[in-house]
Write a structure and sequence with these properties.
334 residues; five-stranded mixed beta sheet; D-Maltodextrin-Binding Protein, domain 2; alpha/beta; 17 helices
Length: 334
């Protein structure tokens, strides 16, 4: 997996450097510090980030956010490593892959956004009652090999006695951004989807949510904000203010209703009905997917590596303190 990941990084870097970044939020000529953020996907799962932008929490801290959706862990990390972004919002496993390859400027996790898996198991046919055994012999449209959605999914399946690579026809050759379209076009009996896509498919009769991988995998640093060590060292004040704005948003999300949150983040989901944004948000709130503070603790980090190891994708054990900076988050959370 590491070889493939490394080859992808090298091959895609030049393309991403040459590409223009589409900004969801950008500098408006103010004297604020601009921070370029590359998010791995666009999902209600990242509600606190959008709240921080829309409620002006970043602006209050003197930061203008330039937000780009890079659609996939490999692409997101490539964007960060090639200086196409200052901060990446992506699964913490990517920082481990980069570190294992050898680097003088490792990618450091400094603020956690989500603390569970964010995908849901969607079945093409709605069962009268769902049982995990129903997946045996089925065709499962999976996620990228070595990515957190796939590893957390496999972890959940194994808990219920299902060996993903033996008991199912597992498809993993579909690009991350095209997985929903592939399922909608008829590929697979089951698929892992983020919200609001899962709810949208349910509404349109394309598939039905039957289980949550978030409840199966437990607490882990599923998506975190990370930067190169050099960026954090040279821009410590900006990173601290960034984390402070995020913490305000996390607290706001925790203390407000799904309806109120949906009204704030609606501009980021123009093609999704507001009622689906609200129900998607409620699903994530009920399973405590949104971290209430930016601290990535040791227990979560170890659970991440256990899941990676179970999937056969952990290149080496990495101590929490090597790739995680909790000082900034702990200071802000006080």
């Amino acid at each position: 997996m590491l070889k493939g990941f490394k080859q992808y990084i090298i091959g895609a870097a030049s393309v991403l450097i040459a590409s223009s970044l589409l900004a969801a939020g950008c500098s408006n000529g103010s004297t604020n510090d601009k921070v370029r953020v590359a998010e791995v996907t666009r999902s209600v799962f990242y509600a606190p980030q959008y709240v921080a932008i829309e409620k002006g929490f970043f602006e209050d801290e003197g930061i203008d956010i330039e937000l780009t959706t890079t659609w996939g862990g490999d692409k997101t990390m490539t964007t960060l490593l090639s200086n196409g972004a200052d901060v990446a919002l992506v699964g913490s496993e990517t920082s481990i892959y980069v570190y294992a390859q050898g680097t003088t400027d490792p990618v450091i996790n400094f603020a956690q956004l989500t603390q569970t898996d964010g995908t849901f198991l969607v079945a093409r046919e709605k069962p009268e009652t769902f049982n995990w055994e129903q997946l045996k012999g089925s065709t499962f449209l999976g996620q990228r090999k070595g990515g957190m959605p796939q590893m957390a999914g496999e972890f959940g399946l194994k808990k219920h006695g299902i060996e993903p690579h033996k008991d199912m026809n597992l498809i993993q050759n579909v690009d991350f951004g095209n997985i929903p379209n592939a399922f909608a076009s008829g590929t697979g009996n089951y698929v892992q989807l983020f919200e609001p896509t899962a709810s949208l498919f349910e509404k349109e009769g394309i598939g039905y949510v039957v289980a949550s991988f978030g409840t199966e995998s437990g607490k882990l640093p599923y998506t975190t904000f990370m930067s190169k060590e050099s960026y954090i060292k040279n821009n410590k004040d900006i990173v601290e203010r960034f984390t402070k704005a995020l913490y305000k948003a996390q607290q706001w999300v925790d203390s407000h209703s799904s309806k109120e949150i949906a009204a704030v983040i609606e501009p980021y989901f123009e093609d999704t009905p507001i009622d689906l944004i609200e129900s998607s948000t409620e699903r994530y709130k009920k399973q405590h997917s949104f971290a209430t503070n930016p601290i990535l603790d040791v227990e979560e980090w170890n659970n991440l590596q256990n899941i990676m190891d179970e999937a056969g994708e952990l290149p080496k054990q990495v101590e929490h303190g090597i790739l995680v900076n909790t000082q900034i988050a702990e200071s802000v959370a006080k």
